[in-house]
Amino acid sequence: MDPKKFFGELKRRNVYKVAVAYAVVAWLLIQGATQVFPFFEIPNWAIRLVVLLLIIGFPVALILAWAFELTPEGIKRAEDVDLSKSITRRTGRKLDFLIIAILLLVIGVFAYQRFGPGRKALITVPSAIPEKANAYFTDGVQDEILANLAKVAELKVISRASVMLYKSGNPRNLREIGQQLGVAHVLEGSVQRAANRVRVTAQLVDARTDAHLWAQTYDRDLADVFAIQSEIAKAIADQLQAKLSPAEKAAIERPPTTDLVAFDLYNHARPLLLGHAFSAQIKDKFLEAIGLLEQAIARDPAFLLAYCGLASAQGQLYFLNLDHTPARLGSANAAVQTALRLRPDAGEVQRLGSRNGRCRMSR
Predict the structure, then answer these.
(1) Which of 151, 155, 153, 158 has its CA nearest to residue 348?
(2) Contact 185, 202 (CB under 8 A)
(3) Are 157 and 120 in contact (CB under 8 A)?
(4) Does 103 lie in the same domain as 196?
(5) Are residues 242 and 327 in the same domain?
(6) How far is CA 91 from CA 14, 84, 95, 158, 283, in A?
(7) Is residue 286 domain-shared with residue 316, that is, in the same domain?
(8) Spans in the chain with pLDDT lower than 70
């Protein structure tokens, strides 16, 4: 077929329009699924199933648009239809208006997600530089607060990696940060640890007006640090008017571990897994991290994140050909299987090797 005639047929049969309409409707369905499913405690695999079905349906829709025409007598094969009787051809303008309406709806949804109040939160690194001895602990507490906020479906939380440029000590302007990262709110805080006491300060700021919306200082026993993390996340969700489902509330209230020493060991291990891809000491760093994580697991055999970090370290040693042996692969798989047994529905178990050391290995 002549290319010009072929593309003319694509246009006549509304294949282009069907493709655009399908894409925007699919996007809206995916957005709806990611927002609604968690509220009703529908597992994450259901969202992936929706995405997969929509991807499979795309070429099917294009084939149907090409092969069939809608006529007053019903659907018929395109080559058997008199073009003057094609409803598809006569309703092309209506389809144009439908596509425009859907695109406007998509733009509206996108604008609300990006600029609407309470839709995005940002957590920064410390507003005060921590002492070197407590840096790992401080980072660990802040990352757990970030992880708790990320569990709230109605909040869009910017990753820690995106805010590292704005770490305390660098010039910072909250309005500029909000504009650059597309966020409405900034959460700042600091963590101080001394003997058996911990002080955590947190403040929520409207990045658009630089107005302080909420602030709190928690001065408690060190053993209460996990409860503080949960309280801050719930307070921020309340301030941003984000509704918590029962599953989200339970996930936020669940501490990563019940052992503070295991938590320290885990926080010391995490940096060893990051940023060493081109380092000559990469293997030594991973082995050191494995040793720390194994100590953490020995203290708390139910420490899910430690198993995820262990799976990441063991897996990278194997797949980077630093120790490409069946024993190393077996160790990585053993860590993943234990994590699956502990909490098979946890998001951390379904992802391996993210930048904060959490699990990303598929089941």
Answers:
(1) 151
(2) no
(3) yes
(4) no
(5) no
(6) 10, 12, 6, 44, 64
(7) yes
(8) 1-14, 34-41, 43-44, 68-100, 102-103, 106-133, 160-172, 275-280, 350-363
Instruction: Look at the chain and report how many structural domains it folds into.
Output: 3
The verdict on 58 and 141 lying in the same domain is: no
In a domain, 93, yes or no: yes
- What does the alpha-carbon distance between residue 146 and residue 230 come to, in Å, rounded to a whole number? 10
Last residue of a domain, one of 61, 81, 115: 115
Residues 6+ apart with CB under 8 A from 149: 121, 123, 155, 157, 187, 233, 236, 237
Distance (Å, rounded) from C-alpha 170 to C-alpha 14?
54
Whole-angstrom distance, CA of residue 297 vs CA of residue 286: 16
Structural domain boundaries, residue 79:
3-115
The DSSP element (H or E) to which 216 belongs, if any, is strand 211-221
Give residue 30's region: left, alpha or beta (phi > 0; psi -120 to 50).
alpha
Residues 328, 249 within the same domain: no
| Residue 355, token pair as written in the block | 């930048």
Residue 22 lies in a domain: yes
pLDDT in tens, 130-153: 666 688 898 889 889 988 988 888
Closest CA to 288 of 271, 304, 275: 271
Q: Does pTM surpass 0.85?
A: no
Pairing of strands 68-71, 74-77: antiparallel
| Residue 200 C-beta-side C-alpha neighbours within 13 Å | 26
Token pair for residue 8? 């003319």
User: What is the number of other CB atoms lying within 10 angstroms of the CB of residue 287?
Assistant: 15
How many residues make up the chain in this entry? 363
- Domain C-terminal end among 253, 275, 303: 253
Q: What is the DSSP string of 222-258?
A: GGGHHHHHHHHHHHHHHHTTPPPPHHHHHHHHS-S-S
